[in-house]
Amino acid sequence: MLVAVAGCIVLTWVLCAAILVGIGSLVLRCLDRSFHSTDAFWVGLAASVAFLQIWNLFSPVNAAADLPLAVAGLAGLCLDAGRLFRNAVRIIASNKLFLIAYAGIVAVIGLRAAGPCEHFDTGLYGAQAVRWLVGYPAVLGLANVHGRFGFNTSVFLCDAALDHGPWRDLYFHVFPGLLLFVFWIPVLRALQRVFTYDSASTSDWFHTILVIPASWWSARGYVVGTTTDEPTAIVALVAAGILFQWLAQDWEATAYSEWDSRLFTAATLFSLVVTFKLSMLVFAVVAWGLLFLTLWSKRRSICLKAVFPASLLVLAPWLVRGIITSGYPFFPDTAFGFPVDWRVPTIYTKIIVLWVRSWSRIPNVPLAETQGLAWLRPWLHSALRHRSDFPAPVTIAALGSAAILLLRSRPSRLFRLRPLWLLLPSIAGLLFWLVKAPALRFATADIWTGAATLGALGIALASEIMRPLRPRLTAAAILGAAIWCVLGVGWQQSYQVLDSVHGFVRLPEAPVTVHPIQSGLVLSVPISEGQCWDAPIPCAPYFKPTLRLRHPPDFRGGFRSQGLPKVEPQVPM
Predict the structure, then answer these.
(1) Any residues with CB less than 8 A from the CB of 549 and at least 6 apart, and which?
(2) Which residue, among 130, 205, 119, has the nearest Cα to 160 in the 3D structure?
(3) 547 and 442 within one domain
(4) Residue 523, SS3 per DSSP
(5) CB of 400 within 8 A of CB of 387?
(6) Closest Cα to residue 422, out of 190, 154, 240?
(7) Measured torsion, CA atoms of residues 265, 271, 273, 274, in degrees rounded to the nearest 10
(8) This prediction's pTM
(9) Do the Cβ atoms of 27 and 81 come closer than 8 Å?
(10) HSE toward the beta carbon, residue 63, CA cutoff 13 A
């Protein structure tokens, strides 16, 4: 039964990928008749998110929202059918080993995606957020019910779009694996080129290094649940990979028209990743600016004219949704707050900011223990145990930096320093992350962008100057590092849970208590662990007596909060 469930999930990935490729091809055809199918997928994803954001401003993300996306996808596939068919025939004929390896990886991801949901944040607020999206348009002041609803991640819109038809109440098995399903294609192609000596370009090394995080996500990461971390990191790394390849090109010998669709894809993804997770704001803005400056310097007017409206189309409705749900465009940051009655009280936003920063430094300890610099030592001790998040990328970055510093004075025909500019968004993002919320999972893209940039340049330079350093040996070392990361403590548990799968696994049921607050409003509160899972809405992990409906008894009117409850002074007897 496990294999049958996994097969259904993989088939769904294929269908969803085809629809998104069709949508993306409609967009990219306006820039270039020749483009990568994977780029079409990512552009299709961004276009779909932009559409769903606008749709949700006026309507629930119901089954009717999927119809325009399906029609657009099918139209794009029909228009691009000939090229897609020729590419498929070419790949099948000339890349049999690639297809075998890819099928094995997809099978592993599919089996893991068939398992039960163990992602804590899905029960905490993710599943509830999806229920609100499916049932209602964007709700005024929804963050007053649960502060995390104000985080405004567009990942939940993608989950909500899948929560229909045969995947009703099973949507959480699909989206993270779908992105991994496509992310592996350029990574595995680069690895194949390195091993077969067809190419060992700097860009190939960048993507080969990304085998390490890709292997971790596939074998150990969360592929079941409403997780936002893995999708955010994947989208950011795809965009960073395109920008790295562009910076590593010989611009004098490059046909710029061939890059219009690729650079448009990267710019769109840098905008999309902000809507996935606000913590990527600094990384994305700096990277987008770097891409814009290179386009400006080369006078790529066609692409320049396209990236602005595309980025605006993705970001503008996201900002509007943030104001609707919390009263702030960048919640929980209180900058640019709107003077509306549904705005989350400042005291609550401060509590959320303090809690997120404290938990990110040292989870599950009193707030006082995470202040000052006392948290650095236990944080570093914990970070060293997460092989794929800290020791592996830091080691690769250190070795790459040493190779660049020691060998860059040697004569080299191909080595260029331009890709080092990609360190700017990586470092800027890491500084922002370190100050705001230094949990490793919040900075995966920042860390691996820097590591892959330095590692790729170091390997390329060393391979060119030190001839005995063969690409196959280096690639084998990277694969060994990936295996070392995957086989860390507790790897067996990622697969033992599959023993309990005897069909499609639904979300756990959380016992809740109900608390009447005012006429027409009854708040459900989980009895233990603070996880609502799929409980009836509204549900929150804590009881908030000051919560009010703006227009009782209709939820569509939104919510407001009167701040912290007053505490009557205790009179001594």
Answers:
(1) 518, 520, 521, 555, 557, 558, 559
(2) 130
(3) no
(4) strand
(5) no
(6) 240
(7) 180
(8) 0.94
(9) no
(10) 5
Q: Enumerate residues 6+ apart whose C-beta is below 8 A from 162.
A: 16, 171, 174, 175
Bridge partners (DSSP) listed for residue 561: 547
Do both 276 and 320 map to the same domain?
yes
C-beta of residue 460 within 8 angstroms of C-beta of residue 201: yes
Last-in-domain residue among 330, 364, 397: 330
**Which residue from 384, 397, 382 is spatially nearest to 427, judged by alpha carbons?**
397
Our CA angle for 68, 74, 80, nearest 5°, is 135
Token pair of 436 as six digits: 């705001």
Residues 262 and 173 in one domain: yes
426 is a domain residue: yes
What is the rounded CA–CA span in Å between residue 404 and residue 391?
20
Residue 69 belongs to a domain: yes
Specify whether the CB–CB gap between 291 and 242 falls below 8 A. Answer: no
CB proximity list for 492: less than 8 A, separation 6 or greater: none
> Looking at the structure, do residues 553 and 426 belong to the same domain, yes or no?
no
Residues 133-190: pLDDT tens digits?
A: 999 999 999 999 999 999 999 999 999 999 999 999 999 999 999 999 999 999 999 9
Task: Read off the tokens for 190.
Answer: 């680069």
**Is 67 within the bounds of a domain?**
yes
Q: What is the pLDDT of residues 1-38, one digit of tens each?
A: 889 999 999 999 999 999 999 999 999 888 777 788 89
Amino acid present at 430: L
Number of domains comprising the chain:
3
Q: pLDDT band at 299, cuts 50/70/90?
A: low
Shared domain for 530 and 472, answered yes or no, is no
Query: CA 192 to CA 279: how far, in whole Å?
Result: 34
Both tokens assigned to 298: 């080369």
Q: How far apart are CA 457 and CA 205, in angstroms?
A: 8
Where is the domain boundary, 273, 296, 330? 330
The residue with tokens 């509830």 is 128
Q: Are 388 and 485 in contact (CB under 8 A)?
A: yes
pLDDT at 250: 64
In a domain, 24, yes or no: yes
Q: Is residue 565 reached through a cis peptide bond, with omega within 30 degrees of 0 on the bond before it? A: no
Q: Which domain holds residue 522?
A: 512-561
The span from the CA of 308 to the CA of 96, in Å, is 40
